[in-house]
Amino acid sequence: MSITDLPAGVGSALDSAPSLVYAARPAPALDAARLALSRDLVLAFRKRGQLLQPLAFFALVTMLFPLAVSPELSRLRAIAPGVLWVAAMLASLLALEFLFRDDAHDGTLEQYALSGQSLTWLLFAKTIAHWLLTGLPLALMAPFAAMSLGVAASAVPGIVLIMVVGTIALSLIGAIGAALALGMKRSGTLLALLTLPLSLPVLIYGARATELAIAGNSYMAPLELLAALAVLAVTLAPLGAATAVRISLE
Amino acid sequence: MNLRDSRAVTVNHLEAENLQLWRGDRHVLKGVEFGLGKGECLQVTGTNGAGKTTLLRTLCGLMVPEEGRVLCEGRDVRADLPAFHSSLMYLGHEAPLKADLTARENLHYWIGVRRRVAAAGLDAALARVDASAWCERLVRTLSAGQKRRVALAGLALMFAPLWLLDEPTTNLDADGQQVVGSLIAEQLARGGAIVVATHQQLPGAVRAARVLELAS
After folding, report:
1. Under an 8 A CB cutoff, do A112 and B182 touch?
2. Tens-digit pLDDT profile for chain A (250 aa)?
3. What is the ipTM of this complex?
4. In Å, how far is A49's CA from the nearest CA of chain B?
5. Is some CB atom of chain B closer than 8 A to the CB atom of A115?
6. CA nearest to A16 within chain B
7. Burial A69-102 (b: 16+ CB within 10 A, else e)
8. End-to-end C-alpha distance for chain A, whole angstroms
9. How far is the alpha carbon of A97 from chain B, nearest alpha carbon, in Å?
């Protein structure tokens, strides 16, 4: 093995401390998560079309109801909570397909699993990015959809707050489904079958809280239950998603 | 910088002990055994479908063998996979790159998740694989050989003691093959270990310390 004819200093060109090459400092977990998150944000802004799909879907679905049901505001106001939440749930389901698919395809998930960092933590960062790109915009769009359904402007802050908490839970629960569906081709239907039943509590409490907010009553009780669901999802969903991703890599 | 900063362990001795693995009803790894020391290169050969990739993926812990163990410094790597992972770099057939990021951004995010990377280090790694001229282009506009070069820059930048390479010379021109050869030589000179799966000859002046042939 001829290693003597190496040009001097080839190793040192790469790092200021060549004698400590194997002590290359691992990135702190927080930095790693920040990079995983910002990578997804940068990528999403380079592929804006994909980003707008779920939002356009949400806007369209909520606009169909006045046409199909009745333009009468009192009737629209009565169905508004259900319409908003079913539309938000389906829109976030639509966005879930993109959560891990590209990363699984190009080997990024494999590199994450072999990075020495906690896969749970990296997937949590990815899911946060996903929520920032879909859940949060949905929550911010909800007031417009609500107002087109005859909801009074005074209910808007409540609706945004409820939507923010609810979409956090939806994104995280969806991450488990998206990770489980990774091994499948044409996984759309499977993803819906896995995710929707798990998301039912979010739908129930979210719609109830929204109904109370629209009626001008206190919505704290269902909102607190919704927040509890979100906390549960934050703690357990990344673990479940990481396990599912590891299985899909085998 | 001191060593306590680092969870990364050195790899002085890697050993595979009677690895057995089935994929469905196909017996892929039939009792693979080898030992690999510091500064040594193991070349894994075999026909297509003989299980070269499967062996690499088993070594790095992505696949779990039905029987047998992978030992690093005499300890089962499954006992502490994160520590083992932070000391290895696995490069598969496809470079793990995002088409919508530039070559430079790809390295920044990919390696940055694993270790602290300074801008100067990034530039040096890109120059090392002659990628400086096109490192600001989106990866979707690069050729297969250029993508492979970006992956090699990641390898150079990571400074992992153990490299697991799957067909590292695919799609590369003569120059690119020389880069692979010198990267491998440097890694061995530094005392790193390499397992390389290829049915071609290793590029440059590198000779594998031993060759493991997988029977299909």
Report:
1. no
2. 333 333 333 333 334 333 334 445 678 899 999 999 999 999 999 988 888 999 999 999 999 998 998 888 899 999 999 999 999 999 999 989 889 989 999 999 999 999 999 999 999 999 999 999 999 999 999 999 999 999 999 999 999 999 999 999 999 999 999 999 997 877 788 899 999 999 999 999 999 999 999 999 999 999 999 999 999 999 999 999 999 999 999 8
3. 0.91
4. 13
5. yes
6. B121
7. eeeeeeebbbebbebbbebbbebbbbbbbbbbeb
8. 35
9. 17
